[in-house]
Design brief:
single chain, alpha+beta, two-stranded antiparallel sheet
Length: 215
């Protein structure tokens, strides 16, 4: 075998070895670093967007009586806790629509990661100049009303109403396109019900069936 040809073969093998090493290093160190930073930032701005939507809609305040009616018989015994379904549906749709609008308005985001962080070495994390990476979050939002009953003392039940806003956000980066799931739980109102609450209304499957809304 000619020496020149042998040198070419060795050079090709070295190039392939370096390429494989760089690829493995890139996938093991750089990709997780960029993805973790991207996911953390998108999770933060998404949570802020859906919290803003919920607080904007219920900014004027919601009373328990707007959402539920406690019905009693002639003896004052609670016979039914009836949900105001049209009102609940309206609020859920307004929050979901506004949350979606907030997500659509996010646009391109930028994250800055120091060069030292890319090495994967803890000692170099945060050192060196920053590298700016652009990410584009694209998401969808939906909203659920959740009802909880909790014992609040003798013959008293605390009824809490929460809004759960969910968002599935796809992050478009030069490296990968992960999906982030974000949930925000907001307490809407609560009420202490004096008297024995019918057991069938304490069944959460019944409550979720009545209140679980996906606009």
């Amino acid at each position: 075998m000619r020496p020149k040809f042998l040198r070419v073969i060795i050079a090709i093998l070295i190039f392939i070895a370096i390429f494989i090493f760089c690829t493995v290093y890139f996938r093991k160190n750089i990709v997780p670093t960029v993805m973790d930073s991207s996911i953390a930032q998108v999770r933060a701005i998404t949570t802020n967007a859906i919290n803003l939507a919920a607080t904007t809609v219920i900014n004027g305040g919601l009373t328990y009586d707007e959402l539920f009616e406690v019905k009693k018989d002639n003896n004052g015994k609670i016979t039914m806790i009836q949900a105001n379904s049209p009102r609940i549906n309206t609020i859920a749709r307004e929050i979901a629509n506004l949350a979606q609008a907030n997500l659509d308005a996010l646009g391109t985001q930028e994250i800055s990661i120091s060069v030292g962080t890319f090495t994967g070495l803890a000692l170099l994390t945060g050192f060196g100049p920053d590298v700016t990476i652009k990410i584009v979050p694209i998401g969808t939002a939906n909203c659920d009303f959740v009802s909880y009953f909790q014992s609040a003392g003798i013959n008293q039940t605390l009824h809490k109403i929460y809004i759960d806003v969910y968002a599935d956000v796809n992050i478009i980066t030069p490296i990968d396109e992960p999906t982030v799931q974000v949930k925000a739980e907001i307490l809407v109102c609560e009420n202490v019900i004096v008297g024995e609450v019918p057991e069938f209304y304490l069944n959460m499957s019944d409550i979720s069936g009545m209140l679980n809304l996906n606009p």
